[in-house]
Design brief:
- It is elongated and about 50 Å long.
- It is an alpha+beta fold and about 80 residues long.
- It has 2 helices and 3 strands, in the order E-H-E-H-E.
Length: about 80
């Protein structure tokens, strides 16, 4: 068993309306030192695989087919072996 952590972020140069809204709200609440906020999505996926390489391959397929839009997103995959 493996746990894959997938971090999905917008590519550089794309507008991040959620991050912008959070920054504005923080500034409004008195946190004037906040100059930028980037939002991203993080997913933890537990899967059964023969080895770490196979787990990474499957999660990469998941990202390419559903989890991330390759036109606007970059993603990072971290794999951790779970003890059973």
């Amino acid at each position: 068993m493996y746990k894959a952590t997938v971090i999905i972020k917008l590519k550089k140069g794309l507008l991040d309306p959620e991050g912008r809204t959070i920054k504005q709200a923080l500034n409004f609440l008195g946190f004037k030192e906040v100059k930028e906020v980037d939002s991203y999505k993080m997913l933890d996926i537990v899967l059964d695989a023969e080895n770490e390489e196979k787990a990474r391959e499957r999660v990469k397929e998941m990202c390419e087919k559903l989890l991330a839009n390759p036109v606007i997103h970059n993603y990072e995959i971290k794999i951790e072996k779970l003890s059973v």
